[in-house]
Amino acid sequence: MNPKFDELYKLYEEYNSHTNISAIRDKNAVYEKHFKDSLLILENCKLEGKIIDIGTGGGFPALPLAIERPELDITAIDSVGKKIKFVNLAKEKLGLEKLTALTARAEELAHNPEYREKFDIGLSRAVAELRILLELASGFIKPGGKFIAYKKSDNAGEFNAAKKAAKESKFKLIEQISYAEDKQLLIFEKTGHCHEKLPRSFQQIKKNPF
Length: 210
Known about the structure:
By secondary structure, this protein is of the alpha/beta class. The chain has a single domain, classed as Vaccinia Virus protein VP39 (Rossmann fold, 3-Layer(aba) Sandwich), CATH 3.40.50. It has helices at residues 4-16, 27-39, 62-68, 81-94, 106-109, 130-138, 156-161, 163-168, 202-207, and strands at residues 50-54, 73-78, 99-103, 119-125, 141-152, 171-180, 183-190. The longest helix has 14 residues, at 81-94. The relative contact order is 0.14.
């Protein structure tokens, strides 16, 4: 494993000791559940172009991907400022020049012309229910681009509940890849421009999901 992961762990451990960015604290668990889990996508998917990590939290999968593939153009967003502060600290300490981390709400940033349908690939890991994720991602991904969600394998109910959201958000499921005993990657393709109203405010999405 790239030695920068040891540096990342030290930064993570120190920061997490005074500012909670993740409940996972055991060293082996951090490596398995944050670092290695984030990287497994590289064995199964081709990542290229402009990438956005929606709801990155403490920087996962953005930080491990930026370490392993420093040439990737990754924008990581999260609404929690203390978590993005850590991502930017790690970016500076580890010299991850092509990683950008922003404190922002996805449903608001997606309406900014600078970010509207500008990304080739969207990623999201352990953030929200799939039907919510699809609507949040819809404003970022360009037609022909892909949205990849890290999900548990046993999520048939969640997947079925997201079918209308996928249709409304102009996403079509093109592949499901099992990458661990109980996990999978759901890969959606953006089939066209989504409606200008999407994504709606988070309150609307939660109250009246598609």
